Amino acid sequence: MNKKIIVASKNPVKINASLEGMQKILPNEQFEVIGVDVPSGVSDQPMTSKETWQGALNRAMNAKSEIPEAEYWVGMEGGIDKDEDGKMYAFAWMCVIDQKDAIGKGQTGVFYLPSKVQQLVEEGIELGYANDQVFNENGSKRKGGAVGSLTFGALGRTEYYVQALVLAMIPLVNPNLYPKE
Q: How far apart are CA 6 and CA 96, in angstroms?
């Protein structure tokens, strides 16, 4: 029987990353993945790590409310923050909730944004649209994302998210090592 994963997005990058991550950490399982549009409850462009995590958690919880019959609910939220020098960097938080309401939390690596992209984001433009403008792309957040543009495709958004999803699954696949608090 397939395990059902509800992904709190219809973005193909997030759906594919969820499936690939689950297949890596649970290679003997078969999965059915369903995307559902649910609100994040945070701004369209989260500007801190805390706000970004809250968006991922909210998405996973809202997906569980929307479709309660599943084994896992996944929320992913891309965000940005600034370092002590005011340089802007991007990352994403992953939240996975299982049937026992245990929560797994994983984060991608971070990468710094070019000053042109940072300027557009500071003017209120969401990262995906700022990236499209600077790199003359269309719909990059549904494809390789800023990370794909900046690495010339060496690291796409799906692959970038897969590792963080696997990391988020650690406490869920090792419940005896991570007792629910």
A: 10
